[in-house]
Design brief:
Blueprint: H1 10-27, E1 31-37, H2 39-42, E2 52-58, H3 64-77, E3 84-90, H4 91-95, E4 101-103, E5 105-107, H5 112-121, E6 132-134, H6 137-147, E7 149-153, H7 156-159, H8 165-182, H9 187-203, H10 209-219, H11 225-236, H12 246-264
Parallel strand pairs: 2-3
Antiparallel strand pairs: 1-2, 1-7, 3-5, 4-6
Helix pairs in contact: 1-3, 3-5, 6-8, 8-9, 9-10, 9-11, 9-12, 10-11
Protein name: Spectinomycin 9-adenylyltransferase
Organism: Sutcliffiella cohnii
Catalytic activity: spectinomycin + ATP = 9-O-adenylylspectinomycin + diphosphate
């Protein structure tokens, strides 16, 4: 079983509080709040392979120099010991919600190499004054609004909008469609993520991957349950305990795809 913020090991809390302190020092009086979402908020955090998802809200836009300082903190902190994903938005961007949402700064391990080169070379190809948009933010904000944790600052419902359902679905469907294509390459992530989408379009429940796996074991046909059990067991441990064959992956993918399509079209309830 995964951890949440209340039950996680002390080194996880210390790491989050360290990031909160470092980012707060950089932003100083511009910080509205520091919030945790994702698996650590929802109870599916696994120290062996989960990342820590963070949203930071500022009063006003941040300078390029501040973005560089945030990049340095993330490069040092991320993967030491846990990978982090951090997005920074202003209060104005939240109050004037649009999808895909603009943002001030973003870090994930996907960007590490480019950011390292950027700082080493003194260039501004990636860290600059341009405002970009991210369709994933609709999902991150929805999870934060409903299940997030406020580490410092104003309460969540005083800061974050209740993102429209159609924006949330739009946000999660891109990753879902990638999972339909890549289930053979990454079965654990894809099975559990497809189930999260299925759970939402069917029951309107925002869930962690761990919760979606448990739900799938109660709702899917009996023949598909062993596949979900294997995915859930692999996700809950630090090593791969079970393997999958191509046939079972295609069968569960096609079943979930058909169900999601039906519910999105307003079909069988």
């Amino acid at each position: 079983m995964g951890f949440n913020w209340q039950t996680c090991p002390m080194n996880v809390k210390e790491f989050v509080l360290y990031l909160n302190e470092k980012i707060g020092d950089i932003l100083q009086g511009n910080l509205v709040g520091f919030y945790v979402h994702g698996s650590l908020a929802m109870g599916g955090f696994n120290p062996y392979h989960s990342d820590i998802d963070i949203l930071v809200v500022t009063e006003v836009s941040i300078s390029v120099d501040v973005k560089r300082q945030l990049t340095e903190v993330c490069l040092v902190g991320s993967n030491n010991p846990f990978p982090v994903e951090v997005s920074v938005l202003t209060k104005h961007q939240l109050d004037n919600w649009q999808h895909p949402s603009p943002f001030e700064f973003h870090y994930s391990e996907f960007w590490r190499e480019r950011y390292e080169q950027e700082l080493a070379n003194g260039t501004n190809n990636y860290i600059n004054e341009h405002v970009h948009t991210d369709p994933d933010l609709a999902a991150h904000l929805t999870i934060t609004f409903h299940r997030g944790i406020c580490i410092e600052g104003k309460p969540i419902h005083d800061v974050f909008p209740n993102v429209p359902r159609e924006d949330y679905v739009s946000s999660i469907i891109g990753d879902y469609e990638d999972c339909l294509e890549n289930v053979e390459q990454d079965p654990v992530y894809c099975i559990l993520n497809m189930l999260r989408v299925f759970m939402y379009v069917k029951d309107g429940i925002i869930s962690s991957k761990e919760e979606a796996g448990r739900w799938g074991m109660t709702i899917l046909p009996e023949g598909l349950i062993p596949t979900v059990e294997k995915a859930a067991a692999n996700y809950a441990n630090d090593t791969e305990m079970y393997s999958f064959n191509r046939e079972e992956l295609i069968i569960i993918r096609d079943y979930i795809k058909d169900c999601v399509t039906q519910y999105r079209k307003g079909g069988v309830k």
